């Protein structure tokens, strides 16, 4: 479907055949993403892995993400963080559930994923965690709104008239100060560790740290001078912001939508809980460990169906780098393309953090389904659950999900 959006040409890819042509046959032609206003204004060093122009610089950024930050080994190294944070979530819900009051499940989801990503990125939750999270949410809202300059590039000045660009710059500057402080603290600690290592052994063992967070890895790359470009602190900030916006927001949204769909479908909920609890019984324990999730085929199918119904980032278009033909139609240079369903992207632009995000989602859901029975607050019936979506970078619920949790430990403890 061809659309004229303002001054831009847009094409909706809604068939598997057309998608195959775009993502396989002409993959290189469509390896670009349009640079939207929010990215231009809120970027620190134009190093967003999601939106950086296709080329040598983007390839290096992707290598950093795939081989250094989000490799299978690195994702596995954060296992204890995920299990600890999910365990804390279960405990916090348990303490409230004893009183029989409803919880804001949406807030719990975002608190969980922010905690996990913060510890993976910074080694611990930063001292300005509450402010950082609030600013991040505000930045995502600003980035997801309708911006006239994205459809009418010649009217960029309207971004100032509406106050959108000044608001974006204000958020960027505040986030920049927090990230600058975190990077500075990491640099100081790395220097102290290096001196201590050389003083005690005479050998530089700073490279042998068993656990490194994302900032440590990025600083090590910056110091190594092995990259084909000068890796600046501003570009490190962009990579960190990408990880937060892509890892925390999308994972929380998927957990939230999965439980929403299960609340609307009690039969599916019971089947998913039965599978999870059976795995727990077989292991003779009252909790689910990350390795146990691999036995939960039905839960994995539920997550996939949720991603089909509610892709967390539904609007990640591609841009044609040159003229080409798709399904016999001639498409002009810089045409914008959007896909009906590709939750993690595909081809060269596929999300490098799939394993990091999905692992977090599946572990959280398995624990929540294992430990609690759930019912809707305020006497709402399953068929009455509000499933309205909001328009933005991520496809979130319009209204928060409020649920009542009932602890379900008795069945599990009987097997011990």
TrEMBL record:
<keyword id="KW-0479">Metal-binding</keyword>
<dbReference type="GO" id="GO:0016705">
    <property type="term" value="F:oxidoreductase activity, acting on paired donors, with incorporation or reduction of molecular oxygen"/>
</dbReference>
<comment type="similarity">
    <text>Belongs to the cytochrome P450 family.</text>
</comment>
<keyword id="KW-0503">Monooxygenase</keyword>
<dbReference type="InterPro" id="IPR052306">
    <property type="entry name" value="CYP450_71D"/>
</dbReference>
<keyword id="KW-0408">Iron</keyword>
<dbReference type="GO" id="GO:0004497">
    <property type="term" value="F:monooxygenase activity"/>
</dbReference>
<dbReference type="GO" id="GO:0005506">
    <property type="term" value="F:iron ion binding"/>
</dbReference>
<dbReference type="InterPro" id="IPR001128">
    <property type="entry name" value="Cyt_P450"/>
</dbReference>
<dbReference type="InterPro" id="IPR017972">
    <property type="entry name" value="Cyt_P450_CS"/>
</dbReference>
<keyword id="KW-0560">Oxidoreductase</keyword>
<dbReference type="Pfam" id="PF00067">
    <property type="entry name" value="p450"/>
</dbReference>
<keyword id="KW-0349">Heme</keyword>
<protein>
    <submittedName>
        <fullName>Cytochrome P450, family 71, subfamily B, polypeptide 34</fullName>
    </submittedName>
</protein>
<keyword id="KW-0472">Membrane</keyword>
<dbReference type="InterPro" id="IPR036396">
    <property type="entry name" value="Cyt_P450_sf"/>
</dbReference>
<keyword id="KW-1133">Transmembrane helix</keyword>
<dbReference type="GO" id="GO:0016020">
    <property type="term" value="C:membrane"/>
</dbReference>
<dbReference type="InterPro" id="IPR002401">
    <property type="entry name" value="Cyt_P450_E_grp-I"/>
</dbReference>
<keyword id="KW-0812">Transmembrane</keyword>
<dbReference type="GO" id="GO:0020037">
    <property type="term" value="F:heme binding"/>
</dbReference>
């Amino acid at each position: 479907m061809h659309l004229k959006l303002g001054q831009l040409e847009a094409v909706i890819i809604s068939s598997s055949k057309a998608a195959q042509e775009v993502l396989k046959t002409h993959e290189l032609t469509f390896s670009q993403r349009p640079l939207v206003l929010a990215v231009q204004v809120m970027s620190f060093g134009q190093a967003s892995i999601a939106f950086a122009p296709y080329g040598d610089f983007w390839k290096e950024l992707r290598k950093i993400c795939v081989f250094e930050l989000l490799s299978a080994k690195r994702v596995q190294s954060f296992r204890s963080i995920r299990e600890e944070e999910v365990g804390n979530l279960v405990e916090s819900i348990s303490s409230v559930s004893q009183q029989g009051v409803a919880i804001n499940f949406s807030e719990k989801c975002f608190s969980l994923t922010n905690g996990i990503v913060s510890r993976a990125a910074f080694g611990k939750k930063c001292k300005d965690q509450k402010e950082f999270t609030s600013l991040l949410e505000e930045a995502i809202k600003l980035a997801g709104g309708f911006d006239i300059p994205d459809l009418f590039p010649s009217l960029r000045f309207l971004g100032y008239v509406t106050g959108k660009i000044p608001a974006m710059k204000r958020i960027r500057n505040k986030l920049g100060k927090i990230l600058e402080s975190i990077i500075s603290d990491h640099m100081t600690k790395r220097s102290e560790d290096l001196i201590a290592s050389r003083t005690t052994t005479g050998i530089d063992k700073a490279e042998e740290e068993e656990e490194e967070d994302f900032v440590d890895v990025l600083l090590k790359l910056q110091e190594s001078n092995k990259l084909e470009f000068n890796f600046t602190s501003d570009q490190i900030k962009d990579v960190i912001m990408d990880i937060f916006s892509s890892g925390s927001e999308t994972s929380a949204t998927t957990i939230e939508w999965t439980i929403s769909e299960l609340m609307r479908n009690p039969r599916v909920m019971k089947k998913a809980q039965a599978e999870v609890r059976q795995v727990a019984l077989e292991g003779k324990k009252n909790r689910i460990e990350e390795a146990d999730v691999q036995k939960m085929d039905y839960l994995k199918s539920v997550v996939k169906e949720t991603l089909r119904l509610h892709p967390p980032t539904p609007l990640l278009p591609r841009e044609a780098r040159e003229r080409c033909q798709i399904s016999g139609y001639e498409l002009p240079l810089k045409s914008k393309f959007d896909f009906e369903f590709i939750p993690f992207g595909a081809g060269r632009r596929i999300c490098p953090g799939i394993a990091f995000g999905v692992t977090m989602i599946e572990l959280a859901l398995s624990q929540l389904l294992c430990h609690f029975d759930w019912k809707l607050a305020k006497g709402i019936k399953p068929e009455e659950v509000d499933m309205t979506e909001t328009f933005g970078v991520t496809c979130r619920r319009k209204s928060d999900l409020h649920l009542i949790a009932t602890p379900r430990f008795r069945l599990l403890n009987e097997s011990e």
